[in-house]
Specification:
By secondary structure, this protein is mostly helical. It has a domain of 46 residues. The chain is flat and about 75 Å long. 0% of the residues are buried.
Length: 99
Amino acid sequence: MSRKIKRQLQISKLPRKKGCYISKDQAETELKAVEKRTEKVIKDEIINDWAEENLKEFQKVEKKLITEILCWHENAMSIRIAYNGTSKTTTWKNKKKKN
């Protein structure tokens, strides 16, 4: 039997993610269990009325802020451009210039 080369030895020493993957059925049952727990927590709290009213107000304010941000930047097609100051095309052009 031939000896393993250096790269094969390095690969054999790499930690594997054994046991990290779960089946689809198990994932679905986990999600259902989490949803049940969150529903119980939400039902137990008295915040439901407060949360619904504030959620509506928050959504209105969110829409206003988004439109303001997009108005500040006339050429902005999305929020990402307004926040970062870069779009996909400008980053592509900058990469092309560097190369």
